[in-house]
Write a structure and sequence with these properties.
Blueprint (H helix, E strand, L loop, with lengths): L1 H4 L4 E4 L3 H13 L4 E4 L2 H8 L6 E5 L7 H10 L8 E5 L4 H9 L4 E4 L4 H37 L5 H83 L5 H10 L1 H32 L8 E3 L1 H11 L1 H4 L9 E5 L6 E3 L1 H28 L14 E9 L3 E8 L6 H4 L19 H12 L3 E6 L5 E8 L13
Length: about 475
């Protein structure tokens, strides 16, 4: 408790009394000192008198909202280093990325969970303490370097020692920065998976109910209609000359065609219902987070589910040709993995391949090369291959014939927040998260082969059986 009280007070900014009460009680019981503000402007004014160690800031506020409040705090040299944690009921990833780009360090989702609030507050207070300590060490280091420069001629031995200290402390600072970035990426990944699971579970529920209704009523409806058709045929057989009124109505509705086409329509309804059912199964498979349970799964089902979800992006659109998918699945046994996380990797890499092909198609269309795709070898294509490697791991290859990856992009491809996509279409987190899932969660490897104008090939290598160490999946 004494260590907690070493921190200054925490400022809570929220216009809802019930939220202020919950957070105040939670943090006070944990030994923190707190202050409160009910809007962004009063919070900024209050901070001028005494700086808090951390700010819990609601996104939706009267007057200036949380985003504008955060922007003003970060533009002020006095308050720019105070960690800001947004509080919101929103689950939109773009809103979260917007908040992080403004300088916020984290998000807390409403309704509040006491353990989560305390864990995140303690995490970022600890990081702030570490940052201050690093700043002090850097200041001391700078003084030592200046002293070394003044005494360099007479103190050569001391110079060597100081150089070694510079290298050591720089490495420590780099490692601390790397750890911070990894923590942020893992946090975003965890929240993204949780949001996806919640969204898709609701969507699957909404799809399953009407599909079950249609499919459940299909069989009796088909039987009833065929019974009616049978009776109509008997009437036509035994009463070949109906009254004029019936004869005229039969000709008006083209009864013969209706009786012939009605079974076909019923079969089409059945096909549509089965297709919707398959989509709901794929969505359910893709939404499985399975964060703490390794399961033996058929990776081909995960790949097929990912393709089904992305099917709308593979179809032809106007003059843009369809993207052909060629699958060559090998004889691969069940793979022990976290299915939801691995499905996320498949979707991300396939979506990137589609993005690359769409970019190439648009560029060539703009250049007037409308007939470039008449040759089969030039059709936009994604190839998916699976194979065993040394009987102990599986390799998944996802290959496209898009524009390829430039040398400049290769240098930053797996860096968090790096993206070549326009603002709003990519946050630069997809491939870093994919590498983390494959290499850290599955003890595998994620690599690629590419050169400009020659497409790209991503290789996912996963062991068939996870080593015992994999049971220690780290959760935030």
């Amino acid at each position: 408790m004494d260590k907690i009280l070493e921190f200054g007070f925490i400022l809570i900014v929220d216009d809802r009394p019930e939220n202020l009460e919950i957070l105040s009680d939670t943090l006070t019981r944990a030994g923190f000192e707190i202050a409160v503000a009910i809007d962004g402007e009063s919070a900024i004014e209050q901070i001028q008198y005494e700086l808090p160690e951390l700010i819990l800031l609601d996104v939706m506020l009267p007057g200036i909202d949380g985003f504008e409040t955060c922007r003003r705090l970060k533009s002020n040299s006095v308050t720019k280093d105070i960690p800001v944690i947004f509080m919101t009921a929103l689950i939109d990833t773009q809103d979260k990325v917007k908040g992080l780009s403004l300088g916020a360090v984290d998000y807390i989702t409403k309704p509040f969970q006491e353990e989560e609030v305390l864990a995140r507050v303690k995490l970022h207070l600890g990081l702030r303490s570490l940052t201050k300590e690093l700043a002090k060490q850097n200041a001391l280091l700078k003084q030592e370097i200046e002293a070394r420069a003044l005494a360099e001629a007479a103190l050569q031995k001391l110079t060597l020692e100081l150089e070694q200290r510079v290298m050591t402390r720089t490495a420590e600072l780099s490692q601390a920065l790397h750890n911070l970035k990894q923590a942020q990426v893992q946090l975003i990944q965890s929240e993204k998976l949780a949001s996806l699971s919640q969204l898709v579970t609701g969507l699957v529920h909404e799809i399953t109910n009407p599909v079950s209704f249609i499919y459940g009523n299909y069989t009796p409806t088909r039987e009833y209609i065929f019974d009616i058709i049978k009776i109509l045929n008997l009437y036509q057989k035994h009463y070949p000359t109906p009254p004029p009124e019936i004869q005229e109505e039969s000709e008006a509705v083209d009864l013969e065609f209706v009786l012939e086409d009605l079974p076909k329509i019923l079969d089409s309804i059945k096909v549509g219902a089965e297709s919707l059912y398959n989509i709901s199964v794929s969505l359910r498979s893709l939404s499985r987070v399975d964060a703490s349970n390794l399961l033996p799964v058929n990776i081909h089902e995960g790949l097929d589910s990912a393709l089904l979800i992305l099917q709308h992006r593979l179809k032809a659109k106007g003059e843009h040709p369809a993207i052909e998918v060629i699958k060559k699945y090998g004889d691969v046994p069940l793979v022990e993995c976290y299915p939801g996380q691995l499905n996320q990797v498949f979707i991300n890499i396939l979506a990137n391949a589609i993005d690359a092909l769409e970019e190439k198609i648009s560029h060539e269309m703009d250049s007037g090369e409308q007939n470039v795709y008449k040759a089969e070898s030039l059709m936009p294509t994604i190839r998916i291959r699976t194979e065993l490697d040394n009987e102990d791991s599986v390799i998944i290859r996802i290959i496209d014939n898009g524009p390829g990856i430039t040398e400049q992009v290769k240098q930053h491809l797996f860096e968090p927040m790096f993206t070549t996509k326009p603002i709003g279409k990519g946050a630069g987190l997809g491939l870093p998260i994919c590498r983390q899932i494959v290499e850290e969660q599955h003890s595998g490897r994620l690599t690629y082969i590419s050169s400009p104008d020659c497409g790209a090939e991503f290789l996912i290598e996963i062991p068939l059986h996870q080593p015992l160490i994999s049971c220690r999946v780290e959760q935030l």
